[in-house]
Amino acid sequence: MATKETVYTKDPANKKINVVREFDAPVEKVWKAWTEPSQLDQWWAPKPWKATTQEMDFREGGHWRYYMEGPGGERHYCRADYELIVYDQSYTGLDAFCDEQGKINEEFPRMHWEVVFSPAGKGTKTEIEITFAKAGDLEKILEMGFEDGFRMAHENLDELLNTI
CA 17 to CA 7: how far, in whole Å? Predict the structure, then answer.
């Protein structure tokens, strides 16, 4: 399996981060890895962290509540609220940090995600556009280690796609 690179393009003027990554698996397989909780839990968190889905309702108007647990047992709770879904092609939604019950933590930036899946040779190209309300929100997420964490999660996804 070829090593792929996660490419980030920061656009502070428009309060956006664009992320492009190719995976050596067909669109249907990559789509399932991004939209089925049993698979998301296996790759979403950067090691040694683990992701655990609390509940998921993958439909327009639905949401995904999960937490990432660190090696010391600390937990960071998150939620994604789905807006538009075009099966095997794209979805959009709002992502946020929250408490254990899913109440959004306003101290952290909320991010609007658009994730697009397209064939790329024998694999799949994912293009992710993340938009923030304020340029400072973009900077805060970057300072929290978003780039390294998401890159590591993509490496986890490479491993998962190689086994399913």
Answer: 10
